[in-house]
């Protein structure tokens, strides 16, 4: 395993101050699942009444904990909920033993916390295909339950990191009928990131009161506009999980509140961007806006084709305003495109229009933008009203270094 | 532009001796389209009666010469044919000027060779989106026509190279009713390679007699099994063209001959493998065999998902038998898969079966295979009879070096 000691140059200056979400407590422990000298298990405990929504990888080879969580979503919220996550081993592609390991962790968590097994959600992240030494985790559950504390969300964010170079947290508040509702959460993920959830684990908590069906609808929509619009390397993990837990402790019903919807979206977008900013080897954060496509789905298809193109991503790494590769990526995406109505901008510089380089284009302008660590590419298809925005990072030697050596 | 001086470690020992194909002559010239100190234009001249079949990129942003060639396929063969190819500039995404440049080259070729413009096929490969200085090419057409020679196919292969580190040629013969028929051809391509033709130019010549419709059917089928089964970086070019020219000069009708079909397939497969072996930065040739899928199309989908996965490709670069990433790639492909019926081999070593690591698996065995420069990965889906084989290369620092600096 490669030693990853350097924090991404695109990392935020500091981990944000996250508000305490009333009704949720956290604890972490160093169980030695694989790593040494760091925490690798986190427990989140949610009070009775907490509703849980989630989205998961669409991989056909989902891990045991993902299948277990999916089966449990939408269950009764009377008895609270627990979330138990380990890093170091994903318990994915571990056959019957994988199911047994998940079950052992669920049962031990239920026993330690007093929360029914049907309300214990687990996740495992790390190496695929190796047996999860679940006994190391179950041995720590009493300690985890005994050390739960409302102010340890940042510790929880750290415990679930794998190749991440920094922990990722975000929060927002919104005002509903004069009362404040809080949302705060954290995420892990840096490689194997692509739409349909990628290798990400995301846990978001709010003190809003909202029924499960409404929370699920909001969560799915926000996920489509945030986590499903980011890509690091087009690879999709077997373990991706996002859970949103609403404790209801604020007493404020957020069910149809547009402010709550926007705040939840903002927290997810912040975390999604942080995942891209920690993309393996990333040196540039890249925003790709597609407009003028025949519809929104086509715009997203074009955007992801650009974002996933190794030739586009290496050109960005090389600070080369190589719009020819953008044309190539639009052409191969499979969505409708017309070469002669395409326009392309790098930053604010119109590079190409009407099927060719813009008459006013001065390469130095686009080249100057490419020096930035926040690259903006805009493509207008000139065909309709479809729009989409996706986010990615560049493809660098760092990606090769991390992935040619690290057994993930 | 990066200086690419090192020949791929996977290159064949030498360019093969290609037989003369009666009825075809070649010439090359250094026109200075972009490169200096090397040839960059080739002309192939085919005798009257030559039928031409072809396959082309499916990109929605095809280059002007591709559109021109596609319109001409299937035309009458009475007046022979000419093929004119330049490297250094792809004349792709060059708007109306691109069409005008193609037209100027076609007309000049027709004038110099006496072959009607409707039978002049052109291609351009190199940088996208910059105006093609076609006058440099048209100025050389008399010289090209005056120096045509039957034994210059190897020179032609060299003239069309871009980031290729070696020229690519292949040949085969077959016996039809006691008479020998020859096939020989050449290709260029090293990056932006993916199914649906990729950044490749391929020209194959035979002295067989075969009508255009039959030749087209054979060509399309062989292309599906060869060039459309290779991938370097999942990127698809705007310029990919493959032409097969049958001069008929042997007098032997190959229309329904299975030996001819097999020989044409062999030449294409040889050239396709050489393209992969010249994959940008490649250090390992990778063969991926998928069996037991629900159908052949699903097998190919799984195979290409594995072959295009940056995480699989970097693991191979790192000589890591990381079968977890293979599972991941099968899971994300979109084709049907069942985690618990998957089996995976690296070389001859059964690594995983029944949804988990094989009980007899010894990592040292798979690790030893990964040291080879010819990696074989086999995946059995355990679901049906669908099979496919695809070929790719690893993803290395060399790919980043070439593509972060080279304006292709």
Automatic annotation (TrEMBL), chains A, B:
Pfam family, one: ArgJ
Annotated binding of substrate, by residue: 162, 188, 199, 280, 403, 408
Active-site residues, Swiss-Prot/TrEMBL: 199 (nucleophile)
Superkingdom assignment: Bacteria
Entry keyword set: Acyltransferase, Amino-acid biosynthesis, Arginine biosynthesis, Autocatalytic cleavage, Cytoplasm, Multifunctional enzyme, Transferase
GO MF terms, alphabetically ordered: L-glutamate N-acetyltransferase activity, acting on acetyl-L-ornithine as donor
Record-marked site positions (Cleavage): 198-199
Subcellular location, record wording: Cytoplasm
Chief localization: cytoplasm
Enzyme Commission numbers on file: 2.3.1.35, 2.3.1.1
Catalytic reaction(s) noted: N(2)-acetyl-L-ornithine + L-glutamate = N-acetyl-L-glutamate + L-ornithine; L-glutamate + acetyl-CoA = N-acetyl-L-glutamate + CoA + H(+)
Site positions (Involved in the stabilization of negative charge on the oxyanion by the formation of the oxyanion hole): 125-126
EC primary class: transferase
Biological or metabolic pathway of the protein: Amino-acid biosynthesis; L-arginine biosynthesis; N(2)-acetyl-L-ornithine from L-glutamate: step 1/4; Amino-acid biosynthesis; L-arginine biosynthesis; L-ornithine and N-acetyl-L-glutamate from L-glutamate and N(2)-acetyl-L-ornithine (cyclic): step 1/1
Record's function text: Catalyzes two activities which are involved in the cyclic version of arginine biosynthesis: the synthesis of N-acetylglutamate from glutamate and acetyl-CoA as the acetyl donor, and of ornithine by transacetylation between N(2)-acetylornithine and glutamate.
Family according to the record: Belongs to the ArgJ family.
Subunit structure: Heterotetramer of two alpha and two beta chains.
Record-linked NCBIfam families: ArgJ (TIGR00120), PRK05388.1 (NF003802)
Name listed for the protein in its UniProt record: Arginine biosynthesis bifunctional protein ArgJ
Source organism per UniProt: Tateyamaria armeniaca
Source lineage: Bacteria, Pseudomonadati, Pseudomonadota, Alphaproteobacteria, Rhodobacterales
């Amino acid at each position: 395993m490669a030693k990853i000691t350097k924090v991404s140059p695109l990392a935020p200056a500091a981990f944000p101050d996250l508000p305490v979400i009333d009704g949720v407590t956290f604890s972490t422990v160093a169980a030695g699942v694989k790593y040494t000298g760091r925490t690798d298990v986190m427990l989140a405990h949610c009070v009775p009444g907490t509703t849980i929504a989630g989205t998961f990888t669409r991989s056909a080879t989902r891990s045991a904990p993902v299948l277990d969580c999916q089966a449990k979503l939408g269950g009764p919220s009377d008895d609270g909920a627990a979330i138990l996550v380990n890093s170091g081993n994903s318990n994915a592609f571990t056959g019957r033993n994988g199911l047994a390991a998940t079950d052992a962790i669920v049962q031990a968590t239920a026993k330690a916390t007093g929360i029914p097994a049907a309300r214990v959600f687990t996740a495992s992240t790390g190496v695929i295909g190796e047996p999860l030494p679940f006994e190391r985790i179950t041995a720590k559950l009493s300690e985890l339950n005994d050390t739960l504390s409302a102010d340890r969300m940042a510790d929880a964010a750290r415990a679930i990191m794998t190749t991440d170079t920094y922990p990722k947290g975000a929060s927002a508040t919104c005002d509903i009928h004069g009362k404040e509702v809080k949302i705060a959460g954290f995420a892990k993920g840096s490689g194997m990131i692509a739409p349909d959830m990628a290798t990400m684990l995301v846990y978001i908590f709010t003190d809003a009161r909202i029924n499960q069906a409404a929370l699920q609808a909001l969560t799915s929509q926000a996920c489509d506009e945030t986590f499903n619009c980011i890509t690091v390397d087009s690879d999709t993990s077997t373990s991706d999980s996002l859970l949103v837990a609403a404790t209801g402790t604020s007493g404020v019903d957020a069910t149809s509140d547009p402010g709550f919807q926007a705040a939840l979206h903002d927290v997810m977008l912040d975390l999604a961007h942080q995942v891209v900013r920690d993309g393996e080897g990333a040196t540039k954060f890249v925003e790709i806006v597609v407009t003028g496509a025949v519809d929104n789905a086509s715009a997203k298809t074009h955007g992801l084709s650009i974002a996933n193109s190794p030739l586009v991503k290496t050109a960005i790494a090389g600070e080369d305003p190589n719009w020819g590769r953008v044309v190539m990526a639009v052409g191969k995406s499979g969505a409708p495109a017309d070469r002669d109505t395409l326009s392309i901008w790098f930053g604010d510089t119109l590079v190409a229009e009407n099927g060719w380089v813009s008459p006013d284009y001065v390469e130095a302008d686009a080249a100057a933008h490419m020096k930035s660590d926040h690259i903006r590419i805009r493509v207008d298809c000139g065909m309709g009203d479809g729009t989409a925005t996706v986010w990615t990072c560049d493809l660098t030697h760092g990606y090769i270094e991390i992935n040619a050596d690290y057994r993930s």
